[in-house]
Write a structure and sequence with these properties.
single chain; Rossmann fold; 5 strands; about 200 residues; five-stranded parallel sheet; globular; alpha/beta
Length: about 200
Amino acid sequence: MAIQTDVRNYLDRLIATLERLPTDAIEHLSQMLYRAYCDGKQVFILGNGGSASTASHMACDLGRNTIAPNMRRFRVMSLNDNIPLLTALSNDLGYENVFAEQLQNLIRPGDVLIVLSGSGDSTNVVKAMEYARSQSAEVAALLGFGGGRAAAIADLTVLVDSEDYGVIEDAHLVINHVLVEHFRERLAAEHPWSV
């Protein structure tokens, strides 16, 4: 089989999925993030595997690519990025606790947790969501497949209508870039940090 056929097949699946993205849920997520920004709340992002890299990418983009000089920045961090802490928690307390244990040190009422997961069924993701909810934080989940257990816990679910991990992960990254572009323009126009 020629690679051109594989390229076309993948792109067709990706494009069809992107056209079905739930724009109303993405709008709701943007409002959740905007409230956090205006109120000086912390945003935490996490995921496993490919979703871990998207979580890091999203934290980087929201923290840096949404602002111009003299603008207050998003308070945002990825819980995937402290490798020594991840391995210590995994070794000592089990991998299922690596995110919830970090949140015990950090999360406060009104903060926002964003989880990225293809299946929505990873125990470490679910435990982090449950802990965040117990602390009166808002929880958003970018998911795929049917949403799994995470969809039932989240305050907001952005469900990518696909059962293809690659397409789901690509769509999550597209959502990130849409949000970053939106905030770069909105924050520059509205100046909410100066109110």
